[in-house]
Amino acid sequence: MGAFSRISAACALLASTLLLAACADPPPLYVDQAWVRLSANPDSPSAGYFVVHGGPAPVALRGVMSDYAQRIEMHESMAMGGMMTMKPVDKVDIPASQTVAFAPGGKHIMLFRINQNAVTQGKIPLTFLFSNGDRIQFDAMIQKTGEPAPAAKEGGSGHAGNASGAAH
């Protein structure tokens, strides 16, 4: 095989590899790093936090539900007039291929009357409802009052393990 033929073959191999890479599926929409700070008073709501990783198209998180909580609401904390305040939100936009963190001092969920079985197990199954019809299930770890918050993961990939991102 001559030098020109080897170069041509190498270029063809490189081009086909790049074409196959371009055909790869984009990263999916998924949720990870979910945890709940249990309220010291069982009559008061607990706060939940997580990270949503946007998929190939923008969507909106429309709500979160669980059979182990009487009610779940999405809220956002913000400073107004030098004081922290909280307001409910109906939806949260998730841009394509970006992350949106629900974290202390910002966006979060309020969980009312968490079932004692979930508290005993140390986790609560959550279902995240998106505007595109996807329902993603993920177990949030329950942190009791006084326990440290879980360490945030850099670029975590919770779409493996206990998450299942399937449209139902």
TrEMBL record:
At the top level, the lineage of the source is Bacteria
What Gene3D superfamilies does the record tag this protein with? PCu(A)C copper chaperone
Query: Which PROSITE patterns does the UniProt entry name for this protein?
Result: PROKAR_LIPOPROTEIN (PS51257)
Q: Which UniProt keywords apply?
A: Signal
Chain segments carrying region Disordered: 147-168
Signal peptide region: 1-21
* Keyword Membrane part of the UniProt annotation: no
What's the protein name? Copper chaperone PCu(A)C
Organism of provenance: Sphingobium phenoxybenzoativorans
